[in-house]
Amino acid sequence: MAPSASQESGLSAVPSYEEEQSQARFDALIGKDSRVEPRDWMPEAYRKTLTRQVSQHAHSEIIGMQPEANWITRAPSLKRKSILMAKVQDEAGHGLYLYSAAETLGTSRDELNDQLLTGRAKYSSIFNYTARSWADMGAIGWLVDGAAIANQVPLCRASYGPYGRAMVRICKEESFHQRQGFEILLALSRGTEAQKKMAQDAINRFYEPSLMMFGPPDDQSPNSQQSMAWNIKRFSNDELRQRFVGMIAEQVKVLGMTLPDPELHFDEEKKQWIHKDLNWDEFMNVIKGNGPANSQRLERRREAHREGAWVREAASAYAAKQAQSEVA
Amino acid sequence: MSQQNNWPLWEVFVRSSRGLSHVHAGSLHAPDAQMAVRNARDLYTRRNEGVSLWVVKSSDIISSDPDEKDSFFESPQGKDYRHATYYKASEGVKHL
Asked: Scanning every residue of chain A, which has its alpha carbon at the shortest distance from the alpha carbon of B43?
């Protein structure tokens, strides 16, 4: 039998005594639902999974600034503009909290940033849909941020300490995002026929993509089980989707609008919500980069990074000069 | 593709109100201390979370060794008599 690559490089496939001890300590931490901190030993696969998840989450916050930033100048009042600016600023902040958490796993900020700019990293596919009308700001806040919150609340208890702590901060701030979105729709729902139509149209377009934010159905989500065994994920994709669709089915009544899903009902026997089949082919297609706004979003991010280069250079040069004069 | 900054990492501590300690809030990258303080204000006090900030270069923090955790913190274990709850005989005595 030919020697494997790991044997050739001198790495043994059989774990050493130290590795076994470390693995046992890690397993014990997870077993008693405690937290793993940056300097603890952790399995490589755990580190990799978390780095991918946390950095994708960070990228999503950064790209997620764009659909709403585009509407700041067109928001219908000064108050609405201020609110949107605060929301976009929060998203930048959330991205930064998450990048910090990802960095504690051993990948530098510059490398993470590079992964996004070169298109090697993924971000939430929801941001590859365009925001066409003012009502979309409402639907995004209510449905997209709502789905994000349903996803994120259990992540506050993720087994990796820095991730959980970042999520606690994010969830606290995120709750205003959903409310402000709902109130935009509420204002439109009490307006003219045209405004009502605009609100219903936005709900129609964001309903299905927001349900898909929870990820593929459980039987098609192979990584979920491992993430749940590691206490990163606390509930399955379908469980979270159920919880969310149940909430919005009630909330939409307050708006006097409807969800674009004639099949949606609560099955008393199965004790679960039945919704229409979601278009997973479209989901996969958007993830692959063929959504309505994939290239536009990434190009805008690259442009912003290029345009900020002189600011970063100036700040670095100033810091270097100050450091020099301190020495002198 | 992107030019690398390698700006140092800073740990941020926020005092939420007078009379309370500064508490660790998170970290950020900045080219120098002054920028770190300003970024910390924008990042960690957008909702009146603080009245004072500290920033410390992460590389300047010295911490205990996580591998020695058990032996390092062993001493107080089994010394219940350091807590008021250890003393049961006086239970029920007022103002004690």
From this structure: A93
Query: Where residue B67 falls among pLDDT bands split at 50, 70, 90?
Result: confident
Smallest CA-to-CA distance from B57 within A319, A89, A311 is with A319
Mode of pairing for the β-strands spanning A272-274 and B9-15: unpaired
Radius of gyration of chain A (CA): 23
Long-range contacts of A258-261 (CB under 8 A, 24+ apart): A258/A200, A258/A203, A259/A203, A259/A207, A260/A203, A260/A204, A260/A207, A260/A208, A261/A207
Does an H or E element contain A84, and which? helix A78-103
Q: Which residues of A touch B9 (CB under 8 A)?
A: 103
DSSP per residue over A214-250, as a string? T-S-GGG-TTHHHHHHTTS--S-HHHHHHHHHHHHHH
Q: Are A166 and B26 an interchain contact pair (Cβ–Cβ within 8 Å)? A: yes
Rounded CA-CA distance A130/A101 in Å is 29
Phi-psi region at B78: left, alpha or beta (left = phi > 0; alpha = psi -120 to 50): left
Q: Give the minimum alpha-carbon distance from B63 to chain A in angstroms, rounded to a whole number.
A: 10
Q: What angle do CA A69, A75, A79 make, to 5 degrees?
A: 105
Contact B21/A at CB under 8 A: no
Q: Is B9 near chain A, with CB under 8 Å?
A: yes
Q: Note whether ipTM > 0.95 here.
A: no
Question: pLDDT tens digit string along A2-54?
Answer: 444 444 445 556 888 888 999 999 999 999 999 999 999 999 999 999 999 99
User: Per-residue pLDDT for A104 more than 60?
Assistant: yes
Inter-chain Cβ pairs, chain A and chain B, closer than 8 A: 54
